[in-house]
Amino acid sequence: MTTVAPDIHRTIDAVWRIESARLVAGLARMVHDVGLAEELAQDALVSALEQWPDSGVPDNPGAWLMAVGKRRAIDQIRRQDRLERKVEEIGRDLETRQVAAGPDDVEEIQDDLLRLVFTSCHPVLSTEARVALTLRLLGGLTTDEIARAFLVPEATVAQRIVRAKRTLTKKKVPFEVPAGAELTERLSSVLEVIYLIFNEGYSATTGEHWTRPELCADAMRLARMLARLAPHEPEVHGLVALLEIQASRIRARTGPEGEPVLLLDQDRARWDQLLIRRGLAALDRAESLTDTPGPYTLQAAIAACHARARRQEDTDWVRIAALYTALAQRMPSPVVELNRAVALSMAFGPAAGLELVDELVGDPALRGYHLLPSVRGDLLRKLGRDAEARAEFERAAELTRNARERNLLLERARACAERAGQPTG
């Protein structure tokens, strides 16, 4: 045993953040129940909180927690009076292994984690439940931390997680990595969950803050872990590339008072070059694995065009517009079309972009989407149609739920009103 850390609870919290996913995954493989596995892991954590302040932190805390969790699993199995052969096997294994000795089969740990990823992101669960359960089991976040990240009551998050685990048990979702066509379908669900987590951190939908960097960091950690677990899946590396490159701008996206700074106004010297290099390397990896890049790889390629431009005027907007056209073919979406309109406006002038935006105005999928009037207002402003631009910015401000973004949009509306000679109220 090592010496007791000055702040033992902080040390235990750090250990839990690192080891919880592997612990839950390993126990879930034994008991075939994610909810029960998390309970057993929590029991092991309680034991650590009780024992480590006196005995010190073990040299291999992860193995210690796993050994305690396995003992709890054996007790659970014995209480249920089933799987006697499994109990004997596990019991013999524990008797011959020292508590501090960790698992020596790295592939087994990776397989367990991959099973946990696919289980927590199973399509049988709602999107909100998948996000909450993934952050809980794989991100190691508490219900309070998840609730604060998404600005919802802690009780709501707790209910989502409880219901998710019950659903997995009720539907008898197997703790396994799917194969064949199901693998592709399920992988898209996993990537979507990680992408949603990152996007909420990158552009917060509600609240007083424009970004939540901690949530971005959690998503990147999950994406990197998935890339290690599924190294031959191009879209996994495409997602890693996209997140790394987008995250490189986090520091430049807000001003001194936390106000939003749009892409073309950002100080590119503040972009994180390490994240850019890592993102570009992941993009190279993704592109080397396929001749038909998927949506995340295409989005990463778009982000790379920005990352490679030292000045905003050096951006290759023609290539970005072409990439958005390819993305629209692979993933038809009015949001993609809106982004393509922005690229067209930068490559060929605001009139070209406005023509496409006007075609999207009546799309029911964009009703209530604040970025549609925001983009339209920007294009109208560039065309000198300031009175119309003001109305669009004001409409966008009404639709957004983010306070920082609302203030920015209202400022742009006031600037248009001043140029148009209108009263600003």
Automatic annotation (TrEMBL):
InterPro entries: DUF6596, RNA_pol_sigma-70_dom, RNA_pol_sigma70_ECF_CS, RNA_pol_sigma70_r2, RNA_pol_sigma70_r4_t2, RNA_pol_sigma_r2, RNA_pol_sigma_r3/r4-like, WH-like_DNA-bd_sf. Residues 186-286 form the DUF6596 domain. Residues 22-82 form the RNA polymerase sigma-70 region domain. Pfam families: DUF6596 (PF20239), Sigma70_r2 (PF04542), Sigma70_r4_2 (PF08281). The keyword DNA-binding applies. Signal peptide: none annotated. Belongs to the sigma-70 factor family. ECF subfamily. This is RNA polymerase sigma factor. The lineage of its organism: Bacteria, Bacillati, Actinomycetota, Actinomycetes, Pseudonocardiales.
